[in-house]
Amino acid sequence: MTNTTPPPPYLCLAVGFDGSPPASRALQAAANLLQGRDGRIEVVYVAHMPAMAALSAGAVTELEEGFDDIEQELRTMAAELLGGREVRWSFQRRQGLIAEELIGAATDLGAGSPDAIVAIVVGSSSLVRHRVVGSAAVSLARHSPVPLIVVP
Prior knowledge:
By secondary structure, the chain is an alpha/beta fold. It has one domain: Rossmann fold (3-Layer(aba) Sandwich), CATH 3.40.50.620. The protein contains 5 helices and 5 strands, in the order E-H-E-H-E-H-E-H-H-E. Helix 3 packs across helix 5. The protein is globular. The relative contact order is 0.22.
């Protein structure tokens, strides 16, 4: 009889990232969680197009170009925050409502790694209006089908 401990399961973390201080803390916390573990981080930028913009083809084109620029900036920021760490990560841009898209990214991670533990990591907002009206973290706390880690 041996008392060997099985290795910890593969961990997939979908991290909501918009470049804000809370999102940066969430990305750093996700990297810390993977320290010494087998797993990966999926950095997810959710571009949100206001409903009114969809009424104008010109506005949609202008917003898409802006999203492309923001994506490049965020990709660079993520690389800087994760630089020097031995963690596997990738970056994706999704479009829609933040909570729904983070859940979609987590679902995709689970489908790609069915034996993995999948979780969503987000930063908490310090804005008072988010505590009253709700934030992505609040919506995720209500609807996420996978574990949610909210980083203060």
